[in-house]
Amino acid sequence: MGTAAAPRRFCRCACFCSENLYVARYGLHVRFRSEQQLRQDYGPILRSRGCVSPKDFQQLLGELEKEVERRQRLGQESAARKALIASSYHPARPDVYSSLQDVALAPEFLAAAEYSTSPGADLQGLLQRLETVSEEKRIYRLPVFTASFCQALLEELDHFEQSDMPKGRPNTMNNYGVLLHELGLDEPLVTPLRERFLQPLMALLYPEYRGWLDSHRAFVVKYAPGQDRELGCHYDNAELTLNVALGKAFTGGALYFGDLFQAPSALANPLEVEHVVGQGILHRGGQLHGARPLGTGERWNLVVWLRASAVRNRLCPMCCRKPDLVDDEGFGDGFTREEPATVDVCALT
C-alpha cells in the first residue's frame, strides 16, 4: 500500500521582518535594520515629509522596532487566535462556512469560469465575458458574488467584529478587518474559489502564471469614519490580486493604479477605478495602487492575494532577492522549499 504524500510546507522570506515596513504618518515603506542604516537610506526623504526633530526620529525608531517585534511573533500568535476562534466562537451565519456553492457566485462569474475551462477557450473569448478596465495595465473587472451572499458574509463579519474574540490585523498597512484563515473561511470559501474558478480564469488573463497559483492569503479590509479611511501607494505581496467590494453603503474610496513596479514617488495621472458592490477587480500584484479617502459610510472589501511558489521561490517580490526561507504557519507567504519548475522571471515583467 502506498504512503500518502506529506502536505507541502509553506514558508516566508526572512525579509518580512526588515523590508517594506509601512510608516503611515510619512506615507513611506522603509527597510529597517539599524538606526544608522535608517538615517543613511531615508534621512532626506523623512525630513521632507516632516520627520525633522530628534524627538520625531526617536518616535519613528520606536514604532519600527515595535513593528519588527510584531512581525516576528505573527505566525505563532495567528495560530493561537485561529485555535481559540475554532473552539470558542459561535457564528451568526453558519451557512457561509459551508463549502462554496455556485449559488453564492454571480452568473457572470460562473459563465466566465466555465468558458475558461472549455475546449478552445482563449483570451479574446474570455474578454467578451468581463470588463477590461485597462488593456495596457491588464486590469479587469467582473461580478463575483451575488448580493445575497455579500450580505450574508457582511452579517457574519459584523458579528465577529463585535465579539470578544481576538483579532489580527489583515495586513501590514490596514488596521481594521479580518484574516479569513483565522476565522475558518479559508478551506470552505477561498480555497475552492481559487482552485475551481480563479485558476482557469487567471490562466487566460495572465498566462505567465498558468498552473502555478498554488496558495493564497485572503482577508477582509474595513474602511470607516474613525478607523482606516484610505490606503497609501503600495504593491501586493502576490503575483495576482482579486479585490471584491462586499459593501456596505459608501461614497469615495476608489482604487487608483500606477504602472507595474513603478516607484510611488513617480506616480502621476493614475487610473481611478470605482468600487461596485459584488464585483471584483483583477490585477497583477506588482501594479502600484492605493485607495482614495472614504467619503461616507463603511466599505468592506475581500482581498485575495494569489501566489505562485514556482515564481517567488526564485525571486522574492518584496526584497527582489532570492528568498531566505523561514518555516511558517499555513500558506506562509507562498514560498516552498521544493525545487520549482523552470520559470523565466524576466518574462513576468
TrEMBL record:
Give the protein's recorded name: Fe2OG dioxygenase domain-containing protein
Keyword vocabulary terms for this entry: Dioxygenase, Iron, Metal-binding, Oxidoreductase, Vitamin C
Q: Does the keyword Metal-binding apply?
A: yes
Q: Which organism is it from?
A: Sousa chinensis (Indo-pacific humpbacked dolphin)
The segment(s) forming the Fe2OG dioxygenase domain are 214-308
State the needed cofactors, names only: L-ascorbate
SMART domains to which the protein is assigned, alphabetical: P4Hc (SM00702)
Which PANTHER family does the annotation name?
Answer: 2-OXOGLUTARATE AND IRON-DEPENDENT OXYGENASE DOMAIN-CONTAINING PROTEIN 2 (PTHR24014)
MF term (GO), any: L-ascorbic acid binding
